[in-house]
Sequence to fold (561 residues):
Amino acid sequence: MLESIVISNFAIIDRVHIEFNKGMTALTGETGAGKSILLDAIQLVLGDRADSDCVKAGSDKADISVSFDTTQHVEAQQWLEQFELADADECLLRRVVQASGRSKAFINGSPVTLTQLKALGEKLVDVHGQHEHQSLQKKSVQRQLLDASLPDSSLLKETQTKFSEWNALKKQQQQVQDQSLEKEQRIDLLKLYTQEFEELSLQDNEVISLQEEYSRLSHAGQIIETSSSVLSSLFENDDTNIQQQLSHCVQQMESLKNLDASLNDTTDMVKSALIQIQEASSELRNYQDNIDIDPNRLDWLNNRLSQTQGLARKHQIGVEELVNYAASLKQELNLLLLDEEDVEKLQQQLEQAAEKYLVTAKKLSELRSNTAMTLSGQITEVMQTLGMQGGQFEIQVQNLQLQSQSDTPTFTNYGIDQIQFMVSANPGQSVKALNKVASGGELSRISLAIQVILSESSPIPTLIFDEVDSGIGGGIAEIVGRKLRQIAANRQVFCVTHLPQVASQAHQHLQVNKTKTDIETSTDVVNLDQNQRLEEIARMLGGMTITDQTRAHAQEMINNV
Fold:
């Protein structure tokens, strides 16, 4: 559950520290007070995109930290352990946004990517927004909502895997079938190219070794002359060679150390230098003895390098790409040369992949149908409690494979089903597509019913409802509040609301206040005590003028929870 949040210099908030309770928390305030700012801060620290506008004017950065208790959340703990981010005491998420717009993310003090922050956040908090009903009419959203309620997601994942396997074979077959009259010309050209590469028989990293050897042989004269000069100075010059001079120095140091023992280390260093000179002279002499000045070898190297460079220019690639390019040409040629037997084999593989896909997709379709039947009844029941008496909700699962009149199978990454939400807003009417019969107010209530049902089966411990009660009131609003409180019996619920009937159901009540001065505007969040809560609900009931009657009404609402 979400335990606390600390916000600094975010939007118009200077600093806020809030401790959260279990159960249902209501967040209220006057219109324009900034109720959405707290929600924006939570979503930002859960991985939403950030920009410089979220940093309070005049500040260098915005800093938001949230603390979660994940001791009972196995999936979140496993994720933290997988990325070596687990902490036995708490789960602390932090987001810092610079005034420049750049941001940093942390989990339990360790820097993480925004993707990681978002992945963990999705396991901890589920946000239901006030505008979700607008996307509810899209069939893709309807399918996603149904799939999110499946008791077992493994069938959906298996279907996606089987589709990928079938689709890869389908593309390969299409590539073979789509070869045009240019196929034979392309084959002839590829044969010529591959023959050139085969004759060159270039190996991995060969060009580098060829260039190194060519450089060595082409500069052999300079190498011999310079190395001979160095060898003469080190050893072979009888008058001034360094080895002889160092040897003399060693003799002198030996006599000195007998007089002063503190020169022992210095003497050893001079001896070490003499040994190094002797070894270097020996290595250099061996190097000279093994230099092979072979003009024929140099010519061969020059010719082979010219061939590789010419081939690279011809294909407009770097010499280091030649080996991989040759392999790709060979692969393309082999694909074009598939004979009828290979084409038939590919067709058999495609048919087998299609059969495997259909087996899994049909199981998924059956699971969807069963889940849809259960959800339809549950959502219908909630709809009717939200003022749509006699209304019906139905999730239809239509098999695209059965509907298709084409020989070409209708396979998709998400199965062979088309999901459609159907509704009847009034008793006695047949159900029709959601986007054709539901008004804006009805859509809002249907969306709320769906969110309530889906949240009950959600494994996510913290749910946030952002003014999902917009457009309703009276007795229906009271029912919504009771439903949210019911959900809060098993998980933590936050509700941003303007309805006193909903706020009065909360276990904890937070009030957002905006203050203005000639210099700045700022927002604060207050955890209300019982008296303050009574005044806030009375304000929500009666507006700016609060009477004893509105207070009594507010107290009655609180007492009736």
